[in-house]
Amino acid sequence: MEKETLKLSKKETYLLLSSIDVPKSLLQKLQKEEVFLTFEDADYLRDLCGDKLQKNGFDENYLPTELGKKLENLIDILFTK
C-alpha cells in the first residue's frame, strides 16, 4: 500500500467535497479531522478537478469563473504537495 504523504488543509478539503463528486472510496478519507492522501489519491482528485474545471470553470469568454479559479488553485496544490 502506498504511504500517505499529502496533507490537505480544511479549506482544501472543503473545496474538494463541495465542488466535485468524490467517489465513495475517498469520501471517508476526506471526512476525517486530518486529511492525508497518497500520491495516487491526489492524482485521481486532480483528474476529477480538471474535468469539473473544463465543464464549469469558465465563462462564455473562456475566462475562469470564481469556481474555476478555486479549482485551478486546488489542482496546483495537488501537484505541489
Task: Give a description of the structure.
The chain has a two-stranded antiparallel ribbon with strand order 1-2. The protein contains 4 helices and 2 strands. It starts with 5 loop residues before the first strand and ends with a helix. The protein has 81 residues and is mostly helical. The protein is elongated. It has helices at residues 10-19, 24-30, 39-56, 66-80; strands at 6-8, 35-37.
* Average of pLDDT: 92
**Radius of gyration over C-alpha positions, nearest whole angstrom:** 13 Å
Could you state the oligomeric state of the chains shown? single chain
Number of helices: 4
Uncertain segments of ≥5 residues (pLDDT<50)? none
The helix/strand series, from N terminus to C terminus, equals EHHEHH
Shape: elongated
Strand order of the largest sheet: 1-2
Report the end-to-end length measured between terminal Cα atoms.
19 Å
Number of E strands: 2
Percentage of helical residues? 55-70%
The secondary structure category is mainly alpha
Largest sheet: 2 strands, antiparallel
Strand content: 5-15%
Keywords:
mainly alpha; about 80 residues
List the SSEs and their pairings:
Blueprint lengths: L5 E3 L1 H10 L4 H7 L4 E3 L1 H18 L9 H15 L1
Antiparallel strand pairs: 1-2
Quick take:
This protein is mainly alpha-helical and 81 residues long. The chain contains 4 helices and 2 strands.
